[in-house]
Design brief:
Elements (H helix, E strand, L loop, with lengths): L46 H14 L4 E8 L5 E7 L4 E7 L7 H15 L3 H9 E6 L4 H6 L8 H7 L13 E2 L2 E2 L2 E2 L5 E2 L31 H17 L4 E8 L4 E2 L8 E4 L23 H14 L10 E3 L10 H7 L3 E8 L7 H23 L17 E2 L1
């Protein structure tokens, strides 16, 4: 896939922006929650609004924030990359790989605004010590449709990869039915967060389909291909991507283990078994690069950042452990040597009112600053990784 790179300048607005989002309501499932409503997503940014905000951030930063188009969605929407900082350690953060999980996008833009415009000692230290690369809305078709999957048919995949006409069936993560209130029969799509492969040079092979959740993905979607290309470019430039963070949402009914407290956010640093153990022996070729202890240190930094003072965001717990998901971006990039952190914010974007949305965006910001500042001042490397095991679990 040929990559087109364009830099945003003052007043730039992409000519090919498409229409405002189809706000397809998602139905919540599970027990009733007091005062819960199926609210619209109008408080969150459309693709067009985000483009304008990125333009403003780049302009106001006076060159500190660089914004580029690094790829296009299947429906032709721009996928943007924003970079701030000049340090040798790289932090790659993506949001909206699932388009109905939106708080991370708001948090990333707030962070870019601060780091690009502030002359504070904190902002200057971060810019000097780290390079932050953000993909604030990496699945824009999904985001505009307010749903989990992208907007793409199996026929389009076969057109791009003719060898897959010999596959026994489409990919297992291809949605073609009613799911979470969305009728994918009318507009099919793929869960992009199952389309990654630890072999970053992998070419799709028919014998690898349909696959399953415990198998690597294939890079058949242009959205996953774009993230892969950004990751590889950073590897080539810096030698490695030190940190990868993926911003998600989970159901609103989770509790912190041992309490009756609703979870504000689940976090995790484990998505494949350690290649240095018997359970992870099938990933042995990645054993020298995999660094689970660093992932654990990063997650503890997030947890600690959200326990400070009178923070209302103290209900942080560990997402399900013991996972083996090499088809996720987190699993694939962990095997390639990145310290990895999953954010799973409570609820979908339609679940809460404006006040709760703002609180959850702030929780994501505070957690991300725990990582960013810890890497910038190197304090994260002093954390005992075993503290990760003391974080309570998320339970239903």
């Amino acid at each position: 896939m040929k990559k087109l790179v364009m830099t945003l300048g003052t007043g730039f607005l992409a000519a090919s922006l498409l229409m405002s989002p189809v706000q397809a309501a998602q139905n919540n499932t599970g027990p009733a929650v007091p005062n819960q409503q199926n609210l619209s997503i109008s408080g969150f940014m459309t693709h067009e609004q985000m483009t304008k905000r990125l333009d403003q951030i780049a302009t106001n930063s006076q060159g500190r924030v660089e914004v580029e188009v690094v790829g296009f969605s299947n429906q032709g929407r721009e996928i943007y990359k924003a970079t701030v900082g000049t340090g040798d350690r790289v932090i790659l953060i993506e949001s909206e790989i699932h388009g109905n999980e939106k708080t991370g996008t708001e948090a990333l833009l707030n962070i870019l605004q601060f780091l690009g415009s502030s002359n504070s000692p904190k902002a200057k230290q971060i810019r000097d010590e780290v390079t932050i690369v953000a993909l604030p809305k990496m699945n824009p078709d999904s985001a505009e449709l307010d749903r989990r999957a992208n907007d793409m048919t199996w026929g389009e995949v076969v057109e791009a990869f003719p060898q897959l006409s010999e596959a026994s069936s489409p990919a297992w993560n291809y949605y073609t039915r009613m799911l979470q209130g969305t009728n994918y029969a009318e507009r099919p799509g793929f869960d992009v967060n199952r389309d990654f492969n630890p072999d970053l040079q992998y070419i799709p092979k028919p014998e690898d389909f349909p696959g399953n959740s415990a198998s690597p993905g294939w890079f058949i979607t242009p959205e996953a291909q774009t993230v892969r290309d950004v990751y590889v470019d950073l590897q080539n430039q810096f030698g490695k991507v030190d940190v990868f963070v993926d911003l998600h949402h989970q159901g609103p009914y989770m509790k912190v283990e041992g309490t009756d407290d609703d979870v504000t956010m689940s976090i995790s640093g484990q998505f494949v078994p350690d290649p240095n153990t018997a359970a992870g022996a099938k990933y042995n070729e990645y054993a020298d690069d995999y660094d689970y202890d660093f992932s654990r240190q990063l997650n503890v930094a997030v947890y600690d950042a959200l326990q400070i003072g009178n923070s209302p965001f103290k209900n942080i717990s560990l997402y399900q452990q013991g996972l083996d998901l090499p088809g996720t971006a987190l699993g694939s990039f962990a095997l390639n040597g990145s310290g990895t952190v999953l954010f799973e914010v409570r609820g979908q974007t339609q679940s809460f009112g404006q006040k709760m949305r703002g609180q959850l965006v702030k929780a994501v910001e505070d957690g991300l600053y725990g990582i960013i500042e810890g890497v910038a001042d190197e304090s994260v490397y002093e954390i005992d990784p075993e503290k990760y095991e003391e974080i309570p679990l998320t339970i239903r």
